[in-house]
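Lecture 7 notes: from sequence to structure.

We start with a single chain of 154 residues. Read the sequence below before looking at the structure.
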Amino acid sequence: MQITLRPALPVDAPTIAHIFLSARAGMTYLPRLHSDDETRRFITHVVATQAVMLAEVTLGSRKIIAGFAAYAKNDGIFWLNHLYVRPDAQDFGAGHLLLDHVKTQGPHGFRLWCFQANEGARRFYERHGLVLAEMTDGSDNEEKLPDALYVWQG
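Now the structure, written as tokens:
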């Protein structure tokens, strides 16, 4: 098995949406606020307008997109807005490669929000050098769930 990274193309939006929906389906603490079609439109018209890097896994002659990272600079701050790996492709290194790539794009540091209940993601980020900077009650996010701000200092 080999994992490579490549920039996303507009044609990848349906696959990115599938990864997003699949990963979030396992997050049973999340309220369902949007239909799958609304989420696909969000991926196509919002997420895909950011820089998006894909992790592609080669299994023999077959390639699958295992995960993606979407990042952007907003008001001078570099944000990792989304990092998702397909549930059936987790623990093979795709998330690690994607996060390392984001570190090269934001060498002076970046921030991300993570739900407090997403303990697996929080452990992942902490293992990779991100530091918990703030915990909130979630009143400022759409889901109204407590979240955590993580920072990578660069």
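The mean pLDDT is 94. Keep this in mind for problem set 3.
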